[in-house]
């Protein structure tokens, strides 16, 4: 019941975006001269033009919308996981090169360049990257001099 309601709302949303209704007199033009834009337009146009039976999407339309929702959530999960995976990879790389532990703090001697394997570094800063494992070492208090 919940998935059907979600798909019905999604179908209504896509229908409103495309500017079409359930009446067969209206047609949506999807001609675009650029090939990349044409691919994107036709994909969403096909979602917007799913068949409706009595104002509700058909079983095939619901399946298509569920597949689209699964695809969208997969893409979002991938994008949202990138920062965490990047931080984990930098931690693993640092530990393999310099050793592990709360008392290990690699400091770059020079400013970072485009060849440095750090994601989106600022070239005006001297970096130091340390990692804490609170599960292994317990609570930590960090004191920085004034």
Helix fraction?
40-55%
Count the helices. How many? 4
| Low confidence ranges | 1-30
Strand elements, count: 2
Strand content: under 5%
Order of helices and strands: HHEEHH
Mean pLDDT level: 75
The largest sheet is:
2 strands, antiparallel
Shape: elongated
Radius of gyration: 26 Å
Amino- and carboxy-terminal Cα gap: 60 Å
| Backbone structural class | mainly alpha
Q: Strand order across the biggest sheet? A: 1-2
> How many domains make up the coordinates?
2
Structural commentary:
The chain is mainly α. It has two domains: about 1-80, no CATH class; about 100-140, no CATH class. Helix content is about 50%, strand content about 5%. A hairpin with a 2-residue loop joins strand 1 and strand 2. The radius of gyration is 26 Å and the shape is elongated. Residues about 1-30 have low confidence and may be disordered.
